[in-house]
Amino acid sequence: MKIVIPGGSGQVGTLLARSFVADGHEVVVLSRQPRQEPWRVVSWDGESLGDWSTEFEGADVVINLAGRSVNCRYNDENRHLIKQSRVKSTQVVGRAIENAVRPPRVWLQMSTATIYAHRYDAANDEASGILGGTEADVPDSWRFSIDVASSWEEAAGGFDLPDTRLVIMRMAVNMSPTANGPFDILGGLVRKRLGGAQGDGKQYVSWIHDHDMVRSINWLIDHEEFEGAVNVSSPNPVPNAEFMKTLRNVCGVSFGLPIKPWMLEIGAVFMKTETELVLKSRRVTPGRLLNSGFVFDYPKWKDAAIELNDRWCQQRNSSVA
Q1: Fold of 2-315
Q2: pLDDT in tens, 212-222
Q3: What three-state secondary structure class fits 198?
Q4: Cα–Cα–Cα angle for 61, 222, 124, nearest 5°?
Q5: Angle between helices 182-191 and 240-251 (to 10 degrees)
Q6: pLDDT tens figures, 108-133
Q7: Per-residue CA distances from 189 to 172, 183, 252, 258, 260 (Å)
Q8: Quick one: pLDDT at residue 142?
Q9: Considering the entire predicted model, what is its pTM?
Q10: Where exactly are the structural domains of the chain?
């Protein structure tokens, strides 16, 4: 297959590109800052049609991951940049597919599990999940994230593409041992004895092991019954306190300082990020994947954390050697 990945130079895109190339597929990554990789990297600006759009002709799959990171302070400028980067890149991808004489058969569009409501009572699957934005007593920044996610999905759905199947991937936090990724950062906090419950610890963490993330995306490509929104997450989200306790046990650390909301607020200012990333309860389950017969290799956080930590240690030891 020929697989084109707009915005594929980040953690998720690199994992996917590496896996696809290993399986013998042709991979083209569209990037604002092209660099040497074991696959072709083509320049684009993420906003306007250009020569890059010829890559869509005869391609089998487009996986659009483009969008500015949300790991920043939500001031007015960053809010504008975050939303526009997602909407504009998605619109231009849609136009390129629409203009193709031989369009790709499937368009996998990145979205986020953050689109669901902050809740503790029940899990959000695709059929019965409650979309966020109307919850009482949540910060304005959380509503902004819902607006971004909704606008992102609406941009993808604004095209008439009779020959291209559109799948919206509502992605949970991807866990891999990659440097500076979520697992690496959380493991660093644990090893510094700062890996206690964050906030009240009751908020749910939705996650997916990187191996299952790659497998689930291959599943979505191969199974033509999938269209519309799909939750790409493990079937077992866990409360933050349990999530961090398991990670401490796996890392061999007996104690982790609990981090209160006011401490998170102060830390978020200095780290130029938002507390929503850890305080919002994301209780998401992959109903459609499970109903289609997909079987997770790492459905439980403990097993996933053990494997991820083993790889993290191997990578660290090899870099030191």
Answers
A1: Rossmann fold (3.40.50)
A2: 999 999 999 99
A3: strand
A4: 95
A5: 70
A6: 999 999 999 999 999 999 999 999 98
A7: 21, 10, 13, 11, 14
A8: 80
A9: 0.94
A10: 2-315
